[in-house]
Amino acid sequence: MGWQKSLQGSEVSKARTIYLNEPLKNNFCKNSISTAKYNMWSFLPRYLYLQFSKAANAFFLFITILQQIPDVSPTGKYTTLLPLMIILTISGIKEIVEDYKRHIADKLVNTKDIIVLRENVWKIIMWKEVIVGDIVKASNGQFLPADMVLISSSEPQVTCYVATSNLDGETNLKLRQALLETAQMQTERQLSSLSGKIECEGPNRHFNTFIGTLYLNDESPVPIGPDQVLLRGTQLKNTQWVLGIVVYTGFETKFMQNSIKSPLKKSRVEKVTNVQILVLFVLLLAMSLVSCVGAILWNVEGTWYFGTKDYSSHSLGFDLLVFIILYHNLIPISLLVTLEIVKYVQAMFINWDEDMHYKENNIYAIARTSNLNEELGQVKYLFSDKTGTLTCNIMKFKKCSIAGIIYGNQSDKSDIDTKKLSLSPSVLTESYEFNDPTLLQNFENGHPTKDYIKEFLTLLCVCHTVIPERDEDKIIYQASSPDEAALVKWVKKLGFVFTTRTPTSVTIEADTVIYERLSEDSLFMKETLTHLEHFAKGGLRTLCVAYTDLTEEEYQQWLTEYKKASSVIQDRMQSLEECYDKIEKKFLLLGATAIEDRLQARVPETIVTLLKANIRIWVLTGDKQETAINIAYSCKLISAQMPRIRLNTHSLEATQQAVTQNCEALGTLIGKENDLALIIDGETLKYALNFEVERSFLNLALSCRAVLCCRLSPLQKAEIVYLVKKHVGAITLAIGDGANDVGMIQMAHVGVGISGNEGMQATNNSDYSIAQFSYLEKLLLVHGAWNYFRVTKCILYCFYKNVVLYIIELWFAFVNGFSGQIIFEHWCISLYNVIFTSLPPFTLGIFEQCCSQKSLLTYPQLYTVSQTGKTFNTKVFWFQCINALVHSFILFWMPMKMLEHDMVLQGGHTTDYLFLGNFIYTYVVVTVCLKAGLDTLSWTKFSHLAIWGSIIIWMVFFAIYSFVWPTIPVAPEMTGQVNMILVCPYFWLGFLIVPIVCLILNLIWKSIKNTCNRTLLEEVREMESNRVQELNPTMFKMRVEAKNVQMSLASQPHKIVFRHESVDQSTPYGYAFSQVEQAVITQEELICSYDTTKSQGCKSLNKASSGPNYE
Q1: According to its UniProt record, which protein family does this protein belong to (predicted)?
Q2: Mind telling me the catalytic residues?
Q3: What is the pLDDT of residues 833-864, one digit of tens each?
Q4: 387 annotated to bind ligand
C-alpha cells in the first residue's frame, strides 16, 4: 500500500514547538492545498508517462523511431509520427481541461477569507496565507482553515459547537471547550501580549487524539487535549465566534493527512486492451521473422535475374526492421483516438441525461472523466457513505405512541382523509410528515388519554438540551442533536412552544400542569413495545418517553447528592451515574416517538435493484453503529430476520478470536454470499486490518450479504476499499458526498460524488458526480452496461478490421518473394482507418445498445453480462483474431485465384499487382463494413449511414483518385485503375461472392448461438422483438424469470450455528438518538450556563455571520 507510506511516516514525525506571536520562529508547511493531478512543471513528464504506459502509444513511438533510420521505412518517415502527435495533442488538451477544473476548485478553497491577528490588528486574509502560530477568529457558520487550539469563545463555559460531517460524516454537533487559562483573552491588546509556546505532537491522521502543552510565561504548563482542538474542514455552529492558535496547516492538518494522492486510474478494459496489443506485437514479430526466413530461402534458392545469392546478417537485420514497419499497422493506431472520441460522446450522453437531472437544484449528472465509462458496467462492490449519500441530513417527526395508541399512520389513507387533514394546518410539520389529526382531536375532545397526551407533549417540550434564540418574532432552535430539534419543532407545531431557557427554569407557551398518577406500575407496556418494534421495522429512530412524580422534598434531597457527586475528584462519572440511578427509577411509561432520518428519494428501491444486479453494497460511515443499522433497515439493505455479526473488540487477540470463530461457524459457506450482516466499528477494524487477521476478516465480510463499517476515519474507508480492490480483483465503486469520503472515492476503481450539503470536495475529487443516490441505478445499469458493450465492440472491431487488411500483406509476401513490396497503394493504406472504415467503429461505440433502457431497468440481472466481462476477454479476442485471419485468407486467395492466369484488357494491356490490390481492397472495405452490421444489435439511421456510406465513400474516392494524376502529382500508378476494374466481370462476381463467403460462417455461428445456447440477454431481446408483434409479454417475462433463477441473489437458507457472542439474531426494537459524546463538560453544566432572556450582544467581537440553524 504505497499510498499509505507517506501517511504512516507522518505519524511518527517528531514533536513541534509553536511560538506565540513570533511568526519568524514558526517555519512549517504552507496552508495551500492541491487536489489536481498536474501542475505546470509536472504535467509534461507525468502526462507522457501516462500516455506511453499504454502499450499502443509505446509501440508507435518505437515505430516512429525506426522510421527515422535512413532507407529502412518503406512508408516514409512521418506516416506514424504525425498521427501519434495528433493523438497525444487531443488527449493532452482533454487532460488539461479536466485538471483545470480541479485547479479552479482548489483555488476556491485556498482563496476563502478568514480573520487573523497580524501586527496587533484584525486582518482579513486568504486561507492559503494562514501560517502556524496565527491567532484566528472564526464566526458562526464559517469553516475552519487549519487545525487550531481553541483559546476563547463567545459562549458560556468558553465552549463552542462544530459540525464534523466533513470529517466523520456525523450530523450531530461536537462540543469543544477552550482553555480556562486563556478564556478572558479576547481583545487585540490581550492577544498581542500573549507570550509563550505550545509543544505538541507532530502531524498525524488521528482525529480523536491530540497531545500538547501550553507554556505561558510565568505560569504553570497547561495540558491540551483533543477537546481543545478545532480541525480544518469542520464548521462552527451555534457559536457567535471563537479564537484559536493554528498548530497544523495545509497537508499537515489531520483532514489532509487522511486524504490520499490523486491516482491515475485505468479501466480494466484498457488494461486488457494493452495486453492484447502486446499479443499483437508478438504476432507482428512472428510475421516479420517468418517473412525474413522466407526472404532467406527465396534468395538462397536464387533467381537468375536477381544476380546474387549472398545474404548477410546485415541484410537479415535490415529486412527485419523493414517487415516490422511494413506490418506495424496490424496494431490500430486509430483505435486510441477513436476511443477518445467515443468515450467523450458517451460522457456527454451522461451529462445530458434528463433522468439524472435534479430539477429542484437544477443539477445535472457530470462525467468528470471519460476514461472509465465502461468501468461503470462492471461494478461488483459498491462502497457507500451514509450521511448525505443515503440520507438527506434531515430529521422529520413521523409517528408516536401515546398511552398505547399509535399516531401518524395516516399516510396510506384515502384522499378524503388527506383533504380533512389539510383543514388542520397546526397538526402538520413543516414538511407535512406527521399527518394524523386524531392526536389533537383526542386532546381537545376529552378522550380518556387526554392527560397522557398532555404529559407526553409537555415532557418533549421540556426535557432536552435545545437553546432557543429569538430573531424578531421568530424562534430559532439551536440544537447539538438534530433529533432533539425535530422533537421540539414538532411539539411547537402542536402548540407547545419552548420559548426561554435560564439556568434554573424553562418556559413554554402551554399549560404545564403535571397530573398525579395513581398507578404503581407502568401501563401500556405491551402496546408500546409492539409499536416500538413496528417503528423500528420501518427504519425509524425511536425514543421511549416516561416520567415519575417527585415531591419537593425528594427533589431537594436528590439535588444535594447530585451537587456532592459533581464535586468529587476521583471516579466522578461513576458517582454521577449512581446518583442518576437513584432518581431514574419507577418511571411510568407514556409512549414513544419515531423520527425519520430521511432517506433520499428511491434509495430502498435503488438498493434492491442493485442487489438484483449482483452488486454487493457496503456502507462505510463515521457515524455510530445504532444510526448506521437504523439506516440499513430503512433502505432495505438489512432485514429484521437477518442475523447480525457485530465485531466490537478492543484488542488484536479478541478481534482475531471473534473473526476466527465466526468463520468456523460458516464452514463450507465461507466465501459464498449468505443472508448475514456484518457490523464492525473503527477501533475493531484497526485490528482486523492487521496482516494476521486481514484475510480471515475479508473472507468473513465477503460471506455476508451486507457489511456496515461504522466509526471509520476517512483513511479507514480508503483502506477497506483497497483491501477489496487488492484481494478480490473485482471492480469497486465508492460513492459519497463529503470531504471525509474523498479517500475512498479516489481509491476505488470508480469514484462517484454526490452534490449534497457537505461542500464540493467529494464531487471535485470524483470521476462522476450525481445529485441523488437513486441516479446510480441508471448510471450503472443503463449507461454502464451500454458503454461497456459499446467500448468493447468498438475495440474488437478495430482489431478485426486491421488484422483483415494487414495480414493480406503477409499472404502477398508469399507471392512477391518476401521483397517487402506492398499490394495496396500507400495512401489507400493510410486512409483505410482514417476515412474508409472510420464510421462503423463510431456507430458501434456511440449508438450500440444491447437492449432497451426499459429492459435493463426491469431486469437488472442483465447487468451481470457486462459485470462478468464474458464479452471481452482473451478468449473473445483470440476468436476475433482467428476470424479476421480466416477472412483475410479468403479475401486474398479467392481474388488471387480468380486472376491467376491474368486477363487482357481493352487495347491489349495486361494487369499489374495494383489491379489485384484494388480488387482485394474493395472486397475488404465491403466485408468489414458488413461485419459491423452483423455485430450491430441496435440498428439506427446512423448505422445505415456508416455501413453503406463507407462503401460508397470508397467507391467514389477510388473513381476520383484514378484521375487526379498528373493534375495533382500523387499516385501515378493509380491512373485509369477504375476504368480497368469496373469493366472487369471478375470484379463484380467477386464483389458478390467474396464477402458472402467470408461472413456466411459468422452468420451461421450467430444463429446457432442465439438458438441453442441462449442467454438471458437473448431472451429479453426476443421479448422486445415480439412486443412489436403484439405478442403476450407476460409469457416472455415468465420465461426470463425462469431463465434467471440461476442468477438470483436470493440466498438459499442454510443452517448456520453461531456460538460467538458477537452474533445477534434477535429482532431489533429501536435505536439510540445521536447525542454529544465524550463532551469536555456535561450537558447539565452546559445547559445550566445559558440564560436566553439576556442579550448576547456583548459576546460578539464582530457581527457574526449567520449560518444554517434548526428552526
Answers
A1: Belongs to the cation transport ATPase (P-type) (TC 3.A.3) family. Type IV subfamily.
A2: 385
A3: 888 999 999 999 999 999 999 999 999 999 99
A4: yes
